[in-house]
Design a protein that fits this description.
36% of the residues lie in helices and 14% in strands. The chain has 477 residues and is an alpha/beta fold. It folds into three domains: 79 residues, Outer Surface Protein A, domain 3 (Alpha-Beta Complex), CATH 3.90.930; 273 residues, Aldolase class I (TIM Barrel), CATH 3.20.20.70; 44 residues, no CATH class. Strands 11-10-9-8-7-6-12-13-14 form a nine-stranded mixed β-sheet. It is globular, with a radius of gyration of 24 Å. The mean pLDDT is 92.
Length: 477
């Protein structure tokens, strides 16, 4: 029961949308929905009246709401007690605070055999003409250094990254052999696992056996049927057909029982054919649900990609809705992620863990960046293998601040912000929040629009789903 003498406030994060002729109301940090038998305009008016008298005692709002609804609003955190400490999501431990898990990206090389039209790796920041390549010594020092930053019993996930990592296959073999000894001799019980993001346009000698032995988790990019894949991810040179090469390589994986996951980057060219994308992936032998990546409007140089490459809000929302209707495994993967957040508390201020240094990216020269998108950006560099300590806590806190959602004038006031944290902060930082040029303003707006389409469509679906379950339970008695 509510305390009639306590002071309450209306949450600033109210989600409100129509459903079944009524209106669903939920607090964005809790996602515990209530269905009201009133129009959205009527509900909005009630909420505005309550907000105008905050803080308030329960008796102050009895003219606005019946007692039963007041209790429901308190239970769902639509209104909350001002005095008790509200439970919040605690930030993960920073890289400098002995975290239990770190995902280390080793940029083994900074060149590639594909010419993807949306490549995140800018020619300047990734020094593409110089064809930079990481030595085994740098990789070894990096792995040992990041193992030392872990808590006892902690885990280091190593992603073999590029460029195209398979172009550095001899170095990979040395890294894998070294890590077996490093983990076997670790007195603190720390562990290592491996992943690789690859275009898999070729398979080096011994690849199948090595991947199996070391349980390397493979993510392979296939953006759709041949005409889409070859346009978005062409080979360099005269023969632009990457699809057939990747198809042959994936066939070899399937033949030898090597597990992998296919990934599709969402663009204007494939957003309307996601069912065909899934069918393409299935035809290649994929048994895992497709991973969907959201296209970023800028690369690491801050270059803005053509706006017609970006899918619009309605395009993404329609694709998600269509996927839900046909029980798409691709969309269901995302539904499950959002469904896990229901009940809260949710108060995400960052779209990912890059702001805490937990996705460190190591380059050929021993420099450490918070994310693969920030390679070569000296202002966002967080460490150097040649320094002691290798990670600068002040630099990590600087990046944490840069990626904080409250710096975004649009996302910081959105009722859904605690659910997604504003999504990936890369575009916000690389476009200076859309400042400086019309192109960067457009890029920032598109980045928000794409993230909003996913967050709002999936959140509203899950809230509606929860209401339908409530109604079914009530009708059962």
């Amino acid at each position: 029961m509510s305390d009639r003498t306590s002071l309450y406030r209306l949450s600033p994060d109210i989600i409100c949308f129509g459903h079944r002729g009524g209106t669903i109301v939920a607090e964005g940090g809790r996602m515990r929905p209530i269905l009201l038998n009133a129009s959205k305009d009527e509900v909005s008016e009630i909420l505005e009246n309550i907000s105008s008298i905050s803080p308030f005692c329960i008796d102050d709002i009895k003219n606005c709401l019946p007692d039963s609804l007041i209790e429901a609003f308190i239970e769902s955190a639509v209104i909350y007690d001002v005095h008790p400490n509200q439970s919040k999501v605690s930030n993960p431990r920073r890289i400098t605070e002995k975290p239990e898990h770190v995902s280390l990206f080793l940029v083994l090389n900074q060149y590639c055999n594909l010419a993807c039209v949306y490549c995140l790796e800018g020619k300047e920041t990734y020094e593409a003409p110089a064809r930079r390549e990481m030595s085994f010594e740098i990789a070894k020092r990096g792995i040992l250094s990041f193992l030392d930053l872990l808590a006892p019993g902690g885990h280091l996930g190593i992603t073999l990254f590029g460029g195209e990592p398979l172009l550095s296959w001899p170095t990979i073999l040395k890294i894998l052999d070294f890590c077996k000894n490093a983990v076997g001799n670790d007195v603190n019980g720390r562990t290592i696992s491996f992943a690789m993001q690859t275009n898999l346009s070729f398979i080096p000698e011994g690849f199948i056996e090595v991947v199996k032995e070391n349980q390397i988790y493979l993510t392979i990019d296939v953006d759709g049927p041949p005409e889409v894949q070859n346009r978005l991810r062409p080979m360099k040179g005269r023969n632009s057909n990457s699809f057939d090469r990747v198809k042959m390589s994936i066939g070899t994986l399937s033949e030898h029982g090597v597990p992998y996951m296919l990934r599709c980057t969402l663009t204007s060219l494939n957003v309307g054919i996601l069912e065909e994308v899934e069918q393409t992936h299935a035809s290649l032998g994929s048994v895992e649900p497709t991973e969907l990546g959201l296209l970023r409007p800028v690369n690491s140089d801050g270059f803005v990609f053509p706006s017609n490459l970006m899918p619009g809000y309605n395009d993404i929302a329609d694709a998600i809705t269509s996927g839900l209707d046909r029980n798409s495994s691709l969309i269901n993967r995302y539904v499950d992620r959002y469904r896990d957040r229901a009940g809260g508390p949710l108060d995400w201020k960052h779209g990912c863990n890059a702001g805490f240094g937990l996705l460190p990216t190591l380059t050929y020269d021993g420099k450490i960046y918070p994310c693969t998108w920030f390679v070569g950006n000296k202002e966002l560099e967080i460490g150097d293998l040649a320094a002691s300590p290798i990670v600068c806590e002040e630099a990590v806190r600087h990046v944490e601040n840069c990626l904080h959602i409250d710096h975004d004038p649009i996302c910081s006031t959105c009722s859904y912000r605690g659910i997604c944290g504003g999504g990936c902060g890369v575009t916000r930082v690389l476009t200076n929040y859309g400042q400086g040029s019309p192109l960067k303003t457009v890029a920032m707006d598109q980045a928000r629009s794409m993230q909003c389409a996913i967050t709002k469509t999936l959140t509203n679906y899950i809230l509606s789903e929860a209401i339908e379950k409530q109604l079914s339970a009530e009708n059962a008695f």
